[in-house]
Amino acid sequence: MFQPSPWRADFPAIAALQRQHQTYLDNAATTQKPQLLLDALSHYYGHGAANVHRAQHLPGALATQAFERSREKVASWLNASDPQQIIFTHGATSAINLLAYGLEPLFEPGDEIVISAVEHHANLLPWQQLALRRGLRLIVLPLNSHGVIDLDAALQLIGSRTRLLAISQLSNVLGTWQPLSPLLAHAQAQGALTVVDGAQGVVHARQDMPLLGCDFYVFSSHKLYGPDGLGVLYGRTEALARLRHWQFGGEMVQVADYRSASFRPAPLGFEAGTPPIASVIALGASLDYLAGLDENAVATHEASLHRQLLRGLDDREGIRLLGTPQCALASFVIDGVHNADLAHMLTEQGIAVRAGHHCAMPLLKSLGLDGAIRVSLALYNDSDDLQRFFAALDQALELLR
Amino acid sequence: MSLNDHAQAALDSFEQAAGWEQRARLLMQWGERLSPLEAAEKCEANRVHGCESQVWLVAEQHEGQWRFKGASDARIIRGLLALLLVRVEGLSSRELQQLDLPGWFNQLGLGRQLSPSRSNGLNAVLQRIAQLAADA
């Protein structure tokens, strides 16, 4: 039975892509944008751009007001108690790098940083390099056969030398929710700081920062139907106070002399230089759009599409899923078929899915694979998108087998 | 530069191909023509990086003429390699440097395989060949 998406028409690019015979199922990489975002961008640039937090003139005041309104919207989206807990960065990667440099003085040689085997390179490499710079041990929590962090092993591995735990909430390859509550609680009991990479998680479930209880939470705007070039770093107020200033330049400074300077606290002290003003304002518009949707209806729609995706894959012979996906996406390989060949055939048929290592090379290697195909869903996808994907998949397999 | 007989045959068959399916079938058939590499030739020095699949390129010069062998674990890139090698086989470094390889793939109707976002590795192989021709 046809399952439409009631929100499809809110995203003009979907119709444009369809006119180019493209079915977009690479939403874990980036998402299409709602009309409200396009309007906000056009309004900002069309009515007078200005830099923020600097000028007293009217355009500057309006831009600053809109910019800070977005900070409030992000805070309220995350149920953070104070907008000053929200730092805007140039992406999720940039936010995690900020943390890896900003927290660096807190580490002594021999201290341990704990991540998991599921991490995207963005939540692996900044910590790996920090460990190399400071002589720290990087501990990698193992996964069970479903692709979920092995809790028993994790509780053993997180110990008194653990200074920091950094884990993703929802795997971008396996589509598995990680058991954050027990992990965060255990790490905090050991006195460790906690970082959650919410790049995928924030898209598929509303987040509540006080409830989640992590010290830092990171996500990227463009995966949450917002503009690119923008990341969000939430921090508990006490945790933000422990960050050393990282990038230096305009507007993050309190008093500057030629040979010394003092810096502002978060958030402005960590937003050196001109921030991506238009993107910040436009993210506010995307959040307005999302806030207007029926949260349960979206979740039900996505869950139903995900079931159809898993059922369709299961119906076909020789398809091996990576892990046990719970949400949003599924990655798979096919016996005897190279994923690069399959990707070629799907591309030729206008199916936009992702092939390769998905920026998680160590994870793929640990599964004994050098690549996989990933299909990832968004709220504007409908069952016809999946049917077109499966028809193309069948056609590809007929050619390849 | 005139085409050798094999290259001409490739061009003829790809020009006649109607639609992506036929081109894909042809690509896979051409891929089967690559002579297999010895295990020792699949070494790190012959690996071409920048591909989603594993690709090897073995290059030797005999009396000023280049001889190439190639292999991959993926079938489409094997076909692309075969179509590349059939065009460059036996050329001198000077001829190689003058050859418009993207133009060759455009003629075959496979120009899209060279777009920068494609990670099939054909671009990386072309760069390796250009490097060899320049260094020789």
Automatic annotation (TrEMBL), chain A:
<keyword id="KW-0808">Transferase</keyword>
<keyword id="KW-0663">Pyridoxal phosphate</keyword>
<comment type="similarity">
    <text>Belongs to the class-V pyridoxal-phosphate-dependent aminotransferase family. Csd subfamily.</text>
</comment>
<dbReference type="InterPro" id="IPR015422">
    <property type="entry name" value="PyrdxlP-dep_Trfase_small"/>
</dbReference>
<dbReference type="InterPro" id="IPR015424">
    <property type="entry name" value="PyrdxlP-dep_Trfase"/>
</dbReference>
<dbReference type="InterPro" id="IPR015421">
    <property type="entry name" value="PyrdxlP-dep_Trfase_major"/>
</dbReference>
<dbReference type="Pfam" id="PF00266">
    <property type="entry name" value="Aminotran_5"/>
</dbReference>
<dbReference type="GO" id="GO:0031071">
    <property type="term" value="F:cysteine desulfurase activity"/>
</dbReference>
<dbReference type="InterPro" id="IPR000192">
    <property type="entry name" value="Aminotrans_V_dom"/>
</dbReference>
<dbReference type="GO" id="GO:0006534">
    <property type="term" value="P:cysteine metabolic process"/>
</dbReference>
<dbReference type="GO" id="GO:0030170">
    <property type="term" value="F:pyridoxal phosphate binding"/>
</dbReference>
<feature type="domain" description="Aminotransferase class V">
    <location>
        <begin position="23"/>
        <end position="389"/>
    </location>
</feature>
<dbReference type="InterPro" id="IPR020578">
    <property type="entry name" value="Aminotrans_V_PyrdxlP_BS"/>
</dbReference>
<protein>
    <recommendedName>
        <fullName>cysteine desulfurase</fullName>
        <ecNumber>2.8.1.7</ecNumber>
    </recommendedName>
</protein>
<dbReference type="InterPro" id="IPR010970">
    <property type="entry name" value="Cys_dSase_SufS"/>
</dbReference>
UniProtKB/TrEMBL annotation, chain B:
<feature type="domain" description="Fe-S metabolism associated">
    <location>
        <begin position="12"/>
        <end position="131"/>
    </location>
</feature>
<protein>
    <submittedName>
        <fullName>Fe-S metabolism protein SufE</fullName>
    </submittedName>
</protein>
<dbReference type="Pfam" id="PF02657">
    <property type="entry name" value="SufE"/>
</dbReference>
<comment type="similarity">
    <text>Belongs to the SufE family.</text>
</comment>
<dbReference type="InterPro" id="IPR003808">
    <property type="entry name" value="Fe-S_metab-assoc_dom"/>
</dbReference>
